[in-house]
Amino acid sequence: MNILEVCCGSYYDCLTAYNAGAKRVELNSALFLGGLTPSLGSLTLTKKNTDLEVICMVRPRGAGFCYDESDFETMIEDTKLLLENNADGIAFGCLNDDSTVNIKQCTQIITLIKSFNKTVVFHRAFDCVKDPYQTIELLIALGVDRILTSGLENLAIDGIELLKDLKAKYGDKIELLIGSGINKNNALHIIDYTNINQVHSSCKKWVNDQTTTNNKVSYKYHNEYDYDVTDFNFVQELLKAI
Q: pTM of the full predicted structure?
């Protein structure tokens, strides 16, 4: 069976995905930064009012994935709190400044997640490494359950050959989840070509908020008056497509 994971930035998004028929979400905040750690409120409300499988992002800031001591201390604390509040898994990624996996940091987080018997997901920090084969073998050895990846390209459709090869070589040892640029028009082709049956998409649309700017102050990050949310119809269309 093919699986859609909806990338959500709020409780609102999770409710929308759930009502549209999704079964699993990755819960974040600040999707415009690539996704940061969500609030406990968004997690607890989602678990209270849906039966979604909720994978929570643990990412303390935007930009890259090389974390100093204070960043990592925050990640450990957030991981504990999210797991204690019924997160079904944690998505994270820790790299060294040479774009190799930070084994010490990853081991600590994986051990913590496993102590709760929850799912370990290594997110698209994987797409910033130099050697995907060496990296996936290391992540398998460390106990990662699933990797979210676009095949080291900006869009998954452009990384399709690597995705297919990773599935062929390692698909019996670790789950692969394809993300970045997945939509109703390309999802089934990517699934069929790579033999990877899990896809990840934000299914987003833009909604106006007129308080975003005035003549002197602006909080825009896209167009002048809008912000992104999960779209009910996009989720349903993608589910139907796969």
A: 0.96
